[in-house]
Amino acid sequence: MDIDEKIKKDFIRFQRDEITGSMVYARLASIEKNSANKEVLFKIAADEAAHYQILKKYTHQTITSNKWKVAKFYWFARILGLTFAIKLMEASESDAHEDYEQYTDFPELLRLGREEEEHEQKLIGLINEERLEYMGSVVLGLNDALVEFTGALAGFTLALSDSKLIALTGSITGIAAALSMASSEYLSTKSEGDKSKHPVKAAIYTGFAYVVTVVALVVPFILISNVLLALGVMLVIALSIIGLFNYYYSVARSESFRKRFTEMAILSFGVAAISFLIGYALKVFTGIGG
Hints:
single chain, mainly alpha, Ferritin, 2 domains, 0% strand
């Protein structure tokens, strides 16, 4: 079937997206250890390859994959997890799904669009990762560390007025709080009796998230002697952690990034502002710290 140049140009773009998607899912399947997940990924890869062949009947061209995109999603899966990479991949293809629906004169493309939007989403829903099962524990560790620790460091900044002393006090406080949070999560998970979550693993995820956050927030006070400048850098780091984590969470869980980011930022910075004022008031009334 002959098609005009504009339609052919669009079909070639769709064709490249399909063969790229097929290559991505095949590579992800090659590194996936879970047999059920591997089967899901190979099925999606086969579907994408079949879609490519349908489009090729119209374009009569052999199109190569976008190697940069294949490598990008492969390393996303390696570093941030399989589900994150797949959902990000699907999000990037959402416009293509809508584009297929514009070609009402091509019944095969309409069917292809429905398969892209429905069938693949159903398959992706089968993906199961341990890191997502314990996402609640990570959220608990990060939320508590960001809210509590930004507040603590802000309070220490004016109460102590010495960057090294703030870093030392903050580190001791943070490590103790991390151990406390991990212990609480262990007891909480054990009492819930949820067989899908192991209490020790839940505690490790919570404690690890807390400690990583503490280290990131303390570093400015170790490297910068000006306490107010160190406080400013610490708040920027806190905001960056909030942004990066909530982006990951929103993609992995298909939730609103803006809502979660705003809530977490307001809580963390609100507590930090109040603690800063409390630290200033204590310094004035007690006279400690000069």
